[in-house]
């Protein structure tokens, strides 16, 4: 949510800043701006709209200089417009922000009384004026004083008029890193912004303030005492963060799933064929005597959690609850000391998931993060972390991250099952081998891309539609429906197939599309009955099921056949089919697949 780039070094700043912004565009894309020192004076250019619009403006009137800051925005306070775009400027400082300043009104009133004038509707402009009002020559001092006043979440990047060649930053509850180059340094929301220039970075802690010059990075705590952090190196490469010949990042990421899956799973299988998390330094006693598990996550990661619940309860017979993190944190959850709370997050920065994790920790639960981004806040704050190995996921709609999250939850379910005696080693070995074999199912599902693209115009031709499924298929129906609505802006609802009769069936009219997930052999006849019920009322149906499933042809108008495999392993192929459905619908409708309207990939505000 909002992307930040700060640069000081020997290159043309606008080139580095724009490159960084393009790489961070998934974080928000409703307006963008830069401030650059040109001949020692801060010059600011900003615009409503995409980064390309900013680049066009800068091409028409270039800014020359080697130090500056840049921002791509996902609006919270104030509509996306030129004036609300960041950076915001005050007498001494140009500042940009990711987060929400909660007490901005109170501070604004004080500043208005002192004669400061506001041109935007943002909370951010308040921070710019506040810091300026506290500035007496030392930026660090002014920032530290301002932070004492500011409540809420923030990652700031700033340049001070009196200090050319230096960029300042500060963070609390919003991600910020300082990346290290040779004769150049960076302040960034995340390292994907500058993989082209460097992979080495320091992760800032909450309360940290940072100052970079071309040669130095100095980090302080909020009392301005120097602090040091370990240097991290990103394992991602530039190619991974590029489209590589695909039309969209989303399609590329869908096709990267077999590789991401194998990487993630193989790392957790020991030579004896059993699953293990020793390579992640997970202590054995984390799983021993585990009586109850709570999973917290948002969006697609939450649906991975629902699949995880099914598997852990199936293989380990341990009760699992799955909560939307934004609800969990405010619902006074019952957390016992021995509970294991699992936070699932691709970015590792989602504000609600992080808050839920912190709450669980405070109340004495053991916490485990399943996270894709190395060094992210959830990864660092969980007692234990297991990294999924999806590589960078750029498209806003999550695809490969979900697949590897599910893979991790399978492994976890098998480990837990073995640990508490529900699975003997032989059974566990067989299941682990079957899990690994899912890479072939994913591959086979990918080969359905063309037929799925061809089915789309026939089935998804209304503004409103349903997904239905039972058991594991229900969790996947929810995800399939989410993918379709976020990408194509269609009204799509997912229901447990048995629930249709309890209300939603009243919406079935002639030609209404219903997409049924029927991969669970054990409940397929029930789902097929539900399909017939909607067909009898005029619906048009698509059945997604295993190739060998015998289903009365009266029940469906279209059918997608997935590879045969045991019921518990169907989600991998099924999810690929639904990703492809959503992708092709969005492409055929001319939607912006990688950057759907109003969305952002990394949701760092609540
Ligand atoms: C946003 C993204 C979703 C993602 C969710 C949780 O809504 O658009 O794709 O599933 O955040 O993100 P996380 O990074 O915590 O998995």
Describe the structure.
The chain is α/β, with parallel strands linked by helices and 606 residues long. It folds into three domains: 3-234, Glutamine Phosphoribosylpyrophosphate, subunit 1, domain 1; 242-436, Rossmann fold (3-Layer(aba) Sandwich); 447-588, Rossmann fold (3-Layer(aba) Sandwich), CATH 3.40.50.10490. The chain is built from 17 helices and 24 strands. The strands form four sheets. The chain has an eight-stranded antiparallel beta sheet with strand order 3-2-4-1-10-9-11-14, covered by helices on one side. Helix 8 links the parallel strand 15 (293-297) and strand 16. Helix 7 (257-266) packs parallel to helix 12 (400-419). The chain is globular and about 75 Å long. The protein starts with a strand and ends in an 18-residue tail after the last helix. The model has no long low-confidence stretch (mean pLDDT 94).
Number of domains: 3
| Architecture (CATH level 2) name of the largest domain | 4-Layer Sandwich
Annotated CATH homologous superfamily of the largest domain: Aminohydrolase, N-terminal nucleophile (Ntn) domain
Query: How many E strands?
Result: 24
Helix content: 25-40%
What is the helix tally? 17
Provide the gyration radius in Å.
Answer: 25 Å
- The N- to C-terminal Cα distance equals 11 Å
- The CATH topology of the largest domain comes to Glutamine Phosphoribosylpyrophosphate, subunit 1, domain 1
